[in-house]
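thought: fold this chain, then report.
action: predict
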Amino acid sequence: MTTSTSEPPVEMATPPGGDAARRDEVVKTAFKYRDALLGYSYSMLRSWTLAEDVVQESFLVVMNKWQDLKDDAGIFLWVRQIVHFKTLEAIRARGRETMLPDEELLGLVEKAVSENLDEAMAERQRVLGVSLRECMSRLNRFSVSLLAGFYWRQESCEALAEEHGRSINAVRLMLSRLREKLRTCLSKRLQQQGVRP
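observation:
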């Protein structure tokens, strides 16, 4: 599904004021379902390339029609419906007979995705959060202060070096070591709980 050069570029409507943040939130949440939506489209198209195009076009629709979402809890179903229609458009646009989707396979994919995706994602996020808090609790106050300054307050290494009386290179090295320490701790905890890091 290539775009011809004669078509005008897609313009993103810039929402007024606080609506931009709301739009970004809707798009970000929808993007979490990308892999499931790709599988859904592929089950009808039998082409990863076309399915990828369909999902990308669907996200453009989400960006431009985000106000149509009535209930945040139903975001997956809303985006899946967009993908469904875009997939049907792709089938028609191919201009040749496409193997019709296996209804049983499609039903199983829909059921598995709708029943497990939100629950599994929420559980994984919960486990990640708990594990990260446990790993952070093992750090000393200085380390936590350094991480908080860099990640939460978004201070530069230069500002942190001045604030803590250290050289810029020392701050960079400490941050690098802290990241590695947290990554190792988090990986171990997630493996213990059977969650893929």
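thought: worth noting. The chain has eight helices and no strands.
final: tokens above.
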